[in-house]
Amino acid sequence: MYYFAANVIKVFLRMFGKITVYNKQVLPNQGPYVIACTHTGWVDIFYLGITLLPSNIHYMAKKQLFEIKGLAWLLKKLNAFPVDRDNPGPSVLKIPNRLLSKGEIVGIFPSGTRTNEQIALKQGAITIAQRSEVPIIPVVYMGPNNLKELFTRKKAFLIFGEPIYITAKDKEARTYYTGVLEQTLKQLEEEIR
Description:
Elements: H1 2-14, E1 19-22, E2 33-37, H2 43-51, E3 57-62, H3 69-77, E4 81-83, H4 91-101, E5 105-108, H5 124-132, E6 136-142, H6 147-151, E7 156-160, H7 171-192
Parallel strand pairs: 1-7, 2-5, 2-6, 3-4, 3-5
Antiparallel strand pairs: 6-7
Helix pairs in contact: 1-2, 4-5, 5-7
């Protein structure tokens, strides 16, 4: 279902113009790794997914989306898994760690929500990469965020940053590497502008 849906979405998005992708060569040839992407709308999820084909991403998504009947079924088929952002429990780490241990790619939006503002990142992406001992790949998306912007043929860009390897396992390291990730995402965004 993932590949079928991804290819349908790819054809749909191409009707509105191509995405320009920078630095894709920095990606490891295969998983496991964590993708940490900026999140400004629902379109970035699709562009990121089709850009990584034939690899597939397991996205972390807020649990409220899984409470919508038809959407819950689709999200599961598209490799998304629910996370309770208000009361994060052990599954916040358990599910992505299990996926990474199988060599999968986990996609996380470290802002924790869709935003066009510069906000402090949450530490989840770093914590997961740190515990699983995998690199984290910073990614910035700029472009259309909804159907209206797609129809205006607003240009889309994805820029990948060099993998970040977390070399320490303590709390101070999480804080430090969250800052590194935040700074890297800002620099990548400036490169696109």
